[in-house]
Amino acid sequence: MKKYILSLAVLSLFYTKSDACAWSDPDYEYFNLFTQSIIKDKSYLPFLLTYSNRFYGDYKNMTIPDDNIETWKKFFNNQLNYAETENLVYKISMADLNALKNGTPSNPLLQKLGTGFYQKYKEGIDYLIEAKYLEPYMSINYVESPDSFYNNGPSKNLNATSVDYAKTVNALTSLYNATRNPEIKQRYGYQLVRFNHYTRNYDAALEAFKTYIEPIKQKGAVYFMALDQLSGAQRGKEMNSDANWNFFQVFMNSKDRKESAFVSMKLSDTASFSNIMKRADTSDEKNMAYFLLGYEGFTDPIPIMEKMYDINPDSEILKVMAVRSINELERSYLPIYYYNSDASDNVYMQRGNADDHSKASTDTKSEPAAAEVKKEEKLSFWQKIVRFFKNLFGGSKSDSADGGKNDKSDDELLNNPDRIPFYTKSGYGYDEKTKDYLDNLEKFTEKTKKVSKDEYWQIADAYLKFLKKDYKASSEILEDIKTTNPEYLEEIKRMKVLNDIVSHPRVDAEFEDHLMKDYADYFVKKEVKKDTAAVADYDYYGETPSTADFLKDVLANRYFLQGEDGKSFLMNNKLSDLQYNPNSSLVKSVEDFYKKPNKTQFEQQIIAKNMDNVGNIDAFFSMIYGDRAMKQADFEKAKSYYEKAQGFAGIPRMNYDWTDKGEKITAKQYAAGEYNGFRDISNLVFGHNVWESFGSAETESMEADDYSAFPFIKNSMNKLELADALIQLKKISNGTDEKAATANQLIGNLMYNTSSLGYYRQLFVMDIDNSNGGKYDFWNTDRKNPYKYYYKNFLYTTYIEPDNFDLAINYYQKTLKLSKDKEQRARVLFQMASAEQGKYYQYEAKNVKTIDYSDPKYSEKEQAHQTELDNIRNEKYRTYFAQLKSQYSDTETLKGLSGSCSYFGYFLRK
């Protein structure tokens, strides 16, 4: 295998902080228990922590106040509320204002204000009429670069050059001179600065600011609106240092222009914030400059926060820095999924290289994992990057070296009661460096809360102690907080619930009653009736992870550690999800819960509600048990279960169809003659491969053997009939004649054909065809349960109990012993050789050698390991191929196989 070196440029194709991949959103990958937006000054909302967008809140309802509207509201003596002022300034037409001016208002709001409103605020209304006339033209004219690759031609959009320059300047100047109100006068000055900026008359814009803005000694919202335009003109003149400083002033002193001013600073000066720090004179300027440095920094922000603390510990922007730091910690401590070496994409390996296939064709259709059946799949960004490069470079072997040492136990629960997911020290960024960061932030918060008058710091301190598992201290702080701020009160309430629930190491009936009595709102989700056949817009990410989701995970983990796997599973999954990974111990635990008498109210309303639409639940369980018995060749037990499963409603699946209106979801309806998990199984299941092609029709891939001596093998059977046929074959197989030889062969065929290598591998693993799910995986773990923490990622992990290929081989051995037909023995030997390859794949999966990719001798070591595996395969797992080659080279069967099976032809040439 070649060793590939990947540059950061390659990774940047997949992810940047400002533009996450379409299929990954980091802001959906943790629980947001500490609400960033509780900061009081909402003008800083864009600067809260986000990795999904350039600024926080791009797709959220922002509550940032508009400086211009607040100024107008004050101008009108608060006669209008905020919404009415916004309507008047931005929405009501110029014609409506002229009608008000003429004493004939028709707009409902203007009628409500009355005709006297114009007389009272004449200069303001006249300004708004002029502003509404100009507004359609107020954009900068586009100038095509001479080096532009494309020629877009003249733009048809209106811009500032679309109006007569001299006429407009004269009109605005005349209105400026005629106006007496200094605020309205300054607004005309703002229009002059903006108009000159947008027509690229930069010198005139600078002069307009000096002439019309500065003489009016008011530095309110209008001043900074004009300063924003002046800064743009200065940047146009490449006066970058001055432009940057003035954009900084706009950033400091405006509410709704912080985001745009920040972008403008970045565009104006590559060393923007460092240069601002050099010019900062006042404490406020220095404090803001530190904030911008910290905001842009990629290192520990606490030293910057210390400098800001020294200037003003009550600063609102200091809280913004703190809440960003807390959010960074949340992303390390509270991921929505926990992946580990035994339960991730690389846990299993599929069959090896092309020449390892037991049969010829590579015409095998795509085989997605079980999770891909579910539309809700949300792997984290890095999980997907790992998967992408593993697939790209052919890496499919497991990296696990766990060896089954992490099985859960009661001792683990008692000795480590805090082992809920976000306290594990594995994966997802929780390391000693993160712990030190938490310790340092806690010290800073404790110090600041002693001097600041804002209860925010007490809440932050309580939350950090919650992350450190000091629930008692956290709760005591919360109890002492006195506040009337509604956002603070909501956060305190949430944190009290978290401390209470997470601090309980064991969940018993009494505690479940406590949950329902005191915290039902977090668990009882209000049902919204939905028509599953209705067309709806498809939300890729689903709902943002919530406090309720987090608490569900905590309880799921508690149940898991207590050995109540069924309850743990149902906290995060539907009963129907068992179809994707139907391993016996978990199924039994879920069934035990289903049959549990006297369930608590919590168990009935929260957990049992996920015993969903599988139709007949008892039949569903009986089907899984019957299938498992068949995989173990216990046909009598299988029959007893299938007798109870005759009411099986079919494997529950949904159809997802896209229309021009969205996604249409309907329950799958099985047609007559279509395999539904129980019925309509072809007798070809007793046959053998003609070639290996899982995507071809069964009549193309499979060929029937001679069933004439066994009339009970019907052309089409359900599983009960199939089990009965196997029982009869098993009785016949105990004989000593040719019929017994063939009976053993047919049983061997069925066992191989329904294994992970067989065309009918879906038959006994609750699947509808041979393409989906983990039925073709070869696990590298001896653990009965690959899950470590809970079953939340159940659908993102494939685990089906390993095949026992010796069952098929043992039946074939009896055929070899009894059969006198050399051709039949040759065919059986080939089937045994194929099953033996399955045993090798299982061996290989359990003997993965982890080599550090950065090892300079990586390729050499990888090749040495592969050579070792090849030798073991040739020495221990090609017994029956060798026997075929040495003893049956003259048979027609062997000649046919050497022509149709590329692998066997390769082996014969060795």
Walkthrough of the structure:
Keywords: Signal. Residues 353-369, 399-408 have a biased composition (Basic and acidic residues). It contains 40 helices and nine strands. It is an all-alpha fold and 910 residues long. Among the domains are: 66-137, no CATH class; 163-266, Alpha Horseshoe (Serine Threonine Protein Phosphatase 5, Tetratricopeptide repeat), CATH 1.25.40; 676-765 and 800-909, no CATH class. Strand 3 (654-659) and strand 4 form a beta hairpin. The model is unreliable at 1-23, 146-155, 340-430 and 531-542 (pLDDT under 50).
**Low-confidence region ranges:** 1-23, 146-155, 340-430, 531-542
The largest β sheet comes out as: 3 strands, antiparallel
Termini separation: 23 Å
The mean pLDDT is 81
Roughly what fraction of the amino acids lie in strands? Answer: under 5%
Shape: elongated
Report strand order across the widest sheet: 2-4-3
Strands, count: 9
Give the C-alpha Rg.
36 Å
| Percentage of residues in helical conformation | 40-55%
Structural class: mainly alpha
Keywords: Signal
Protein name: Tetratricopeptide repeat-containing protein
Signal peptide: 1-22
Biased composition (Basic and acidic residues): 353-369, 399-408
